[in-house]
């Protein structure tokens, strides 16, 4: 029987896995990194960039807010006056929990995995609001390019510290690039503004020992897959079934792998049922196979919103492995 790590590599390299990869099982995510990301349920707070966040009680997640003058950037042409890079923590004390976690991982069994969020596109609209960020790409492209370059520099500076402290083998990087039915920007605009930034970021990780780039975007982004390949993404995590996943596998399998297919809103909901989850897993595994594909909830971490859902998804994937890998 292959190890979890070996089975993942056989899957994404088009080899001979002996079972389906179960969601995030191959990544041991080090969430203790002093990244500055906070998760404060039921609260309103400002982060280290000055972005105001809210996580209302009863909601499944948090989001930045920009009403009543709360946006950090109110005029993109004056972004340099208000956007300042946060201090990157380098002390041994602050990194100690993350280092201890990394050192405890069996690197023969799982990938020591770093986590980074939010990404470049998300940062632009976190700072000024989605509508203003999208309009600025059209109206003030030079200022937006300067801001993107500045955010990229910060990511690279943080990556250098992270790599030095943890020596990760994989990276899970968040940046949502679309809605369920469309990318937020056209492929041409994505190529102009965001592809160069990500080529720099992901090449830096690859040049410094990271074997596996896993990019989370729980969205439609089939029109951006060629750019994902060009920037060095190994696995697109979060691929929704609003993308034609079998067609993507046919066209791009061998250049990139796809992780998702289980729309979280259709399986992980109040009162979720085993019958619905089992049906979704069976249909997803049968439709997409096991070469270059990993059945997984589209959510961007190995978490669940409603108790027991993820464990049962894994059970169903195990059952499909018994059926397919006879």
UniProtKB/TrEMBL annotation:
It is an enzyme of class 2 (transferase). Keywords: Methyltransferase, Transferase. InterPro entries: Methanogen_methyltrans (IPR052024), UROD/MetE-like_sf (IPR038071), Uroporphyrinogen_deCOase (IPR000257). Transmembrane segments: none annotated. GO terms for biological process: methylation; porphyrin-containing compound biosynthetic process. GO terms for molecular function: methyltransferase activity; uroporphyrinogen decarboxylase activity. Its EC number is 2.1.1.-. Residues 119-288 form the Uroporphyrinogen decarboxylase (URO-D) domain. This is Methyltransferase 1 MttB2. It comes from Acetobacterium woodii (strain ATCC 29683 / DSM 1030 / JCM 2381 / KCTC 1655 / WB1). The gene is mttB2.
